[in-house]
C-alpha cells in the first residue's frame, strides 16, 4: 500500500498543480473519479490490463467512457499513464488528488462508524464538534457497523477516536491482562 501511494503521489501532485493553475479542480476531480472507477470495474480492468490490447485501443476505450470529461489534458494524462504502465494506479492517484483538493479547501474527511444509524441532528453535532477540534470544515462519511455494539468510532486522517462499546471492552481486557 505504501508503495502505491509513493508511486501515485507525483502523478496526483502534477495533476493537482495543473488543475489549480487552470482553475479546473472540480473538472479534474470528476475525470479522475471516473478513471478510477473504470480501473476498479472488473470488466474494464481486464481490457485495460490485457497485453493483447494496444495502447491506442485502451486509450480509445477510456476516452469513450469518459465522454466530455476527456479534454486534451486528460487525454495526455491517460496517454502518459499508459506509456508508463501506470493505469492501475488511477484509484490511488484519484485518492491523493482528493486529499490535496480537500487540504486546499480547508476540509477534513472523517469516517464515522456507528453501531446504529445517526440522526441528522447527531451528524450535525458531530460535524460541529469535529470542526472545532480540527479548525476545518468536516465532511462526514457515516457507516453503520453493528460489530461496535454501541457508540461510535471516528477516524480523521491518522487520528482515531474510539468511543464504541467494543473499543472500551477491548481496552478493559488489555488493562486486565497487564
TrEMBL record:
The keyword Ion transport applies. Its main location: membrane. It is found in: Cell membrane; Membrane. It comes from the Bacteria. It holds the Pfam family OSCP. InterPro entries: ATP_synth_OSCP/delta_N_sf (IPR026015), ATPase_OSCP/dsu (IPR000711). The keyword Cell membrane applies. It is a peripheral membrane protein. Keywords: ATP synthesis, Cell membrane, CF(1), Hydrogen ion transport, Ion transport, Membrane, Transport. Belongs to the ATPase delta chain family. F(1)F(0) ATP synthase produces ATP from ADP in the presence of a proton or sodium gradient. F-type ATPases consist of two structural domains, F(1) containing the extramembraneous catalytic core and F(0) containing the membrane proton channel, linked together by a central stalk and a peripheral stalk. During catalysis, ATP synthesis in the catalytic domain of F(1) is coupled via a rotary mechanism of the central stalk subunits to proton translocation. This protein is part of the stalk that links CF(0) to CF(1). It either transmits conformational changes from CF(0) to CF(1) or is implicated in proton conduction. This is ATP synthase subunit delta. It comes from Pseudogulbenkiania ferrooxidans EGD-HP2. The lineage of its organism: Bacteria, Pseudomonadati, Pseudomonadota, Betaproteobacteria, Neisseriales.
